[in-house]
Amino acid sequence: MTTPRTILVTGGAGGIGQGIAQAFLEAGDRVVIADSNAEAARRAAAALGTTALPLDITDEQAVTAAFETFEASGGIDVLVNNAGILSVHGTVTELDPNDFRTILDVNIVGTFVMTQAFARHRITAGGGGTIVNISSIGGRQPTPGMGAYESSKAAVDSITRWAAIELADHGIRVNAVAPGPVLTPMLQQGMPEGSTERAAWANRIPLGSLAEVGDIAPAVVFLAGQGSKHITGISLPVDGGQLLT
């Protein structure tokens, strides 16, 4: 019987975050759901029967304090950098630079802050551990109007490779999962079933449909587990073949 690991999922109150958390719980692991929305984190943790952590991933001092607490309580074995924002769309000629900076601060700087803190935490503990970043195929395939988000996810892929090569000597593996569009509650509200918008996007995908939340979590669990112990530095598309088009 394997010893349960402790998994930290940022952005854990969102649809993909909760799906990832549930998959790790079903695998027998312990999960900490971190989210900048404290109430949403508490609700999600209560629904899943696990632990909530209010946390702003862009706040270096708060992140450092969180990991100091983890060290006193047994440590974190796996970090899932899921937190990110996709709230601002705009063309090259129209996007407000301040809106662009907001996306970069959360999606890039926040991912870096968490990666750095986890790496220091694991090195202090003697090495080992795994990071799985949630990227996007948008970092490799542009969609008009989504350039700020997609630029940030291209950077997440770059951080993944950077951290993977530098942390390999410490036995820390770093990979990413890059979904296409995922039918989270928020996306379903914006593109309901039967809408022309959803049909248009599904037509871009060779397998013919957008991903369910449950399609993403197994890839994350795999990259965090022993079955992928010789894999580091990759960004695994889970996109129904969209990158082929």
From TrEMBL:
UniProt keyword RNA-binding present: no
Limits of the Ketoreductase domain: 5-180
UniProt keyword terms in alphabetical order: NAD, Oxidoreductase
InterPro entries: KR_dom, NAD(P)-bd_dom_sf, SDR_fam
Origin: domain of life: Bacteria
Cited SMART domains: PKS_KR
Record family assignment: Belongs to the short-chain dehydrogenases/reductases (SDR) family.
Protein name from the UniProt record: SDR family oxidoreductase
The species this protein was found in: Leucobacter coleopterorum
